[in-house]
Amino acid sequence: MGNLRYGEADFEFDDRVLAHLKAAIGVKLRRRQSFFLHWTKPPTEGSGRVSLWISPDAPLAFRFGSSMPPELNHAWVRTLIHLAGTERGMRVVSEEEAEHFAKRRRV
């Protein structure tokens, strides 16, 4: 498991999910584009939703539990980038959801 640090807050994600978020967020920030990042918390964490405003000025850090980076699924990264450009912003989706979305939308 890894952590996305936003300011003083840490949010835990699976390393594979975090690696794809890092890649997609990196693309958007290199373009100087801001967006919301949001996800649903599981019942074990009290349920609810989390939304962060991601901008080039936002204090972000990615910390991974594993020393070996995973191979990236480019359809997943492209889907996250596409979602970031919508009114709702980048929603954390599973790899399976991203592949289904990419096939449907030809992202």
TrEMBL record:
Protein's name in the database: DUF7882 domain-containing protein
Organism annotation: Leucobacter massiliensis
Domain DUF7882, first and last residues per copy: 1-95
InterPro entries, per the entry: DUF7882
One Pfam match: DUF7882
